[in-house]
Amino acid sequence: MTENERHLMQRAYEEVKKNHDIVQHDPYRLDYHLMPPVGLLNDPNGLIQYKGVYHVFYQWNPFNTSHGAKFWGHYTSADLAHWREEPIALAPSEWYEKNGCYSGCAVESEGKLYLFYTGNVKQEDGTRDTYQCLAVSSDGIHFEKHGPILNLPEGYTAHFRDPKVWKENNRWYMILGAQTKDEKGTVVLFTSIDLFHWKEAGRIAGAGMNGLGDFGYMWECPDLLQLNGKDILMVSPQGLESNGHLYNNLFQSGYFVGEFDYEKNKYQPGPFVELDCGFDFYAPQTFKDETGRTILYGWMGMTDENEQYQPTISRNWVHALTIPRELEYKNGKIYQRPVMELVKLRKDKGIVHHVKIHGQPAQFDGVEGKTVELVLEALNVNEGNFQISFRNEASLIYDSSKKEISLQRKNFRTCLQETRTCSIASLSMLHIFMDQSSLEIFINDGEEVFTARYFPNPKDETITFQGNASFSLTKWGLGKL
């Protein structure tokens, strides 16, 4: 560890200590989501199960609630439900990363943990340099930096980042999100036999390729994964125009389903599908654990004009990660479900109601709270709308005539209602995770998902149901990480 790295880490720890009380006493502090101890969190990084332990790294600015020079924060878990904060993994201490250790991934090779990340450098004249960097650990906690292992190739701007690495047929592959010189978003492929020396294999997907027209000026956080025999390219494009119910956040996250030819290093994708219908979901990353499950984390936030109006800013922290979600590909799309380990957070056996409601708002005994899990099964909406109100701050509304489901909340800046909507053929099941200031709503066993932050009156625990419907309702109280 260099002296500068030690100095930066010490400053970060001092910032955590100085702000501990004001952060921890925030009524909007989440109970069972990963958050920064102070400052700003964004992308999940380096997701891996290494030597039986789950690791989640994350982009972190400990000194401010804005997007400055990022560190890599670090959590570990034995069970995906209870987490321990670990020492800082990476600090932007060296010349090749002085303005941020940007996003990346983790792989295991010969018993060691390898972190790949983007070193960001901003010059005094306003120009930017970018380097793909490597750090290695034997214990999963302490990392030795090896510096840049890949420089910016010809044909791209310095917006070239977010390496994702995997192994196939005794060869290592890396994809990066990039911007071409004519400002088109794309994904670029490299190959290696030793993780240190990389050879460019060309672009595999992007705006203007494989029948895709204009599709954003930058593609971030690419991820190529296999589900049920399909090669799925996950990416976060920037610069898409809103189109009806689609692409209504500033930036989007979604996937293409296709086939990757490892002989020719070519990828043929299908249409782009958004991963989440809500307000606060970006930069997802996946990993495969030792049981073979593909698990996703996303950033439960968004860089937009409302970011600095979130009320946690006044308590010197902002943003969180989603709960971990297991992915399955079926019926032509990705389904997302909360990982089964989250049942360990349940504090009770559950309160069950078998109910029919008619028109007016209804509440049920014991069904209230701030950090709860709700499951609605055998859900039959007879006609018109069905609505659930969460603590008088957000509402989920199903319109059976339009075959649409919407999430509404109050805008952080204007306090006016804002809405996100997606189409569904029918509504039969809802699985809802409420935390102190977040909602994650899984529709029809994960066919669609809404993710959002919301900031109700901290004393309000009201959950109400309205419409003409029948369903079986189970509610659990949830504990902390």
Mean pLDDT: 97
Total of domains:
2
- Distance linking N and C termini: 31 Å
Radius of gyration: 22 Å
Strand content: over 45%
Helix content: under 10%
As residue ranges, the low-confidence spans are none
Shape: globular
Tell me the major beta sheet. Answer: 9 strands, antiparallel
**Separate helix tally:** 1
Annotation, overall tally of beta strands: 31
**What is the CATH class name of the largest domain?**
Mainly Beta
CATH architecture of the largest domain: 5 Propeller
CATH third-level topology of the largest domain: Tachylectin-2, Chain A
CATH homologous superfamily assignment of the largest domain: Glycosyl hydrolase domain, family 43
Class derived from helix and strand content = mainly beta
